Amino acid sequence: DTTREHLSLAIALGLPVFVVINKIDMCSQATIQQTLECVTSLLKRGDDSVQFKPYFIQNEADLIKAADMFVKKHICPILSISCITGENIDLLKKFLNILPPRLSRNDQEILSQLPVEYRIDQIYTNNISDEVVVGGTLRRYTFIL
């Protein structure tokens, strides 16, 4: 249900969306097909202005075409992977690396100068240390997860 809500919200906001279906090593072909049909029906909800056309990535040629059309053509690339067997992980990495930036270089530079806001959803504790991180400095080119 959460996935449906997130996907519906992204579509309603007109955000570019791509779908990664994981754990294909644990499912039958029928289950994978059912999941793909469910995702496809979710993408086609709403009026024509916010619908996304599903675009299934099977190989590197599909991947390059999908990345090129991603933002402009209202497509939703769909990629099935397995983190256990590694199936199609290379395609996912390539896709993420060739996606065009949504902002111009100038807008990226302006954005990089703005303060960063963090929202803490949960607090985790460990038995290794009693220290709590309460602050820090974020520098330019710092990788943020």
Automatic annotation (TrEMBL):
InterPro entries membership: EF-Tu_GTPase, P-loop_NTPase, T_Tr_GTP-bd_dom
Pfam family, one: GTP_EFTU
Residues covered by the Tr-type G domain: 2-100
Protein name: Tr-type G domain-containing protein
Organism, scientific name: Rotaria sordida
Signal peptide bounds: 1-21
Keyword terms: Signal
Superkingdom in the source lineage: Eukaryota
GO molecular function, one term: GTP binding
